[in-house]
Amino acid sequence: MTTQRGQSAWFDAQTTAALLAIDPHGLGGICVKSQFGPIRDAWFAFMQTQIAPSTHFQKIPLQIQDEQLLGGLDLEATLQHGKPVYSTGLLAKSHGGFILLPMAERISPHTIAHILQVVDRGEVRHSQQTAELTPCEFGMIAFDEGIAPDESMHPRLAEHMAFEVRLDQLSQNDCKDSLEITPSVIAEAKQRQPEIECDARFIESLMQSAAAFGVDSIRAGLFAVRTAKALAALRNQDAVTEDEVVDAARLVLSHRATRMPSSREEQELDESADDVEPPNEEQSPQEQDDSNQNGDSDTNVNEPKENMEQPSTDDLEELLIEAIKAGIPANALAQLNTELGRANSKQGSKGQFGQLQKNANSGRPAESWRGLPKGGKRLDLLKTIRAAVPWQTMRQAESKATLSSPNKQRSRIQIRADDLHIKRYQQRQGVVTIFLVDASGSSATQRLAEAKGAVEQLLADCYIRRDEVAMIALRGRTADVVLPPTRSLVRAKRNLAALPGGGGTPLATGFAAVNEMALSIRRKGMTPLIVVMTDGVANVTLEGVGGRERAHQDALQTARQLRTAGHAILFIDTASAPQALAEALATEMAAQYLPLPYIHSGKAISQRAAHLARQ
Length: 615
Hints:
With 615 residues, this protein is of the alpha/beta class. Helices cover 45% and strands 14% of the residues. It has 24 helices and 16 strands. A six-stranded mixed beta sheet has the order 13-12-11-14-15-16, with helices on both faces. Strands 2-3-6-1-7 form a five-stranded parallel beta sheet. It has a three-stranded antiparallel beta sheet with strand order 8-10-9.
């Protein structure tokens, strides 16, 4: 069944494709959020056949080497000609066209850095190349196939793209009709765009609207201006009008919004409420109407003609704000005013957890380094030859001069110790989530039950990520390890359900125990993540005796030790109201502080814990 909203979204997706074909490098690119399917194929076919049939589209593999991306030394040609000869990388071959980034949510930050460096400079050069820079300007089409909220494209890559379309929300019936745009129309618009003028009033309104929605990137405002000019060129106009500005704001700024703006009309109404004089009770209603009509007529007579023909900057900004609101996806409106929604929009996670660990023998290949192949390290032969080839002319001349016998043969390639490169690998460390649960008497029964519910949510997420979990309970005068590191979700839930409450709160002892376990886990090559669930009220010292003041000082001291160790810590305040002592402890250990009464679900806690595990 065809819906008006779905058909409008399909036309917007086609419009953005046409705009990108008009100004590919100036608009950066487009992020297509969609799984592989017929709708995405239809959109790409529309761009390939109807919009840019003669344009080159270069696919960038997910795991690509720097030499393939930027270009590198061509060994065969170098040996044949006796001088360094460099090959052309995929980015240089894409000059004037587009690069395709499949599974953009999984592209490594290293590859993204190389691509964006070329985009910003408009030219490409390999690190070993000393020749002139090669002009390289292209547009980007990134296919974001992430499903989970933490699977999204890197924010730096998204910032360099003007548009974002969501095709998963459309049906095939919504995509039956297409815009009548031909390659000749695109070619004429390309020639017309440099001459398009945009009034400064429109530019100011676009920038103010971007700020109202919390868009802190100046690049977004520039994209909006260039989009308005491209729209004017596509519509065969000589200058940007109000319609182009409204459409540009909706297409460029809607998906970048991080908050909803406050209503300026309501603010002005509140501010002017006290200044408005109440109507005169002695004056009749007829006289009030006559005075209002006279006042309106005077205002209309004195109003300039220009203001009647063109909307003011304030009116235009209000119009842009309404247009941007209309373009925001319905399911995103509820998240714009929350801190968690803003944090998730800036993370750019790839769904990977644990720190990267360098390894000499196993893991995913990383960039090779100079070094000697000893101690179990492997020689990178190809990289070694590439480093040695540029010096062969000089070395052959030196060896020729030093040879004592003319019949003595010289080696074809002379390799020296400085040329040797060793292979490197990297792999994600496993994550062990350590729960430090306060089961003392200061945590009331209902609060402990709520804390257990949050821990169960975290345990489920750890099981999905195949993380190990451990648990330390604070009760009485000791901190007991009720669950050593394990992947058994059933065992963890059983021990959590059987955890009794009551007794003292030995926070200092618990902090020392969790620090010792975390250091032990780190020595085994894994990443510890500490989740502390307590109200922060300590009443047992390190020596196991009572005394609130001394117990709190000991807790602060052991919290500083956790900070020094550099652990990733999530501190959840389980008190009935946020406690200053708990917040102070979280500050001392450099932990993220979350008061449990303000968290409406365990899912919010699990998302914050997952973010810590990725760092």
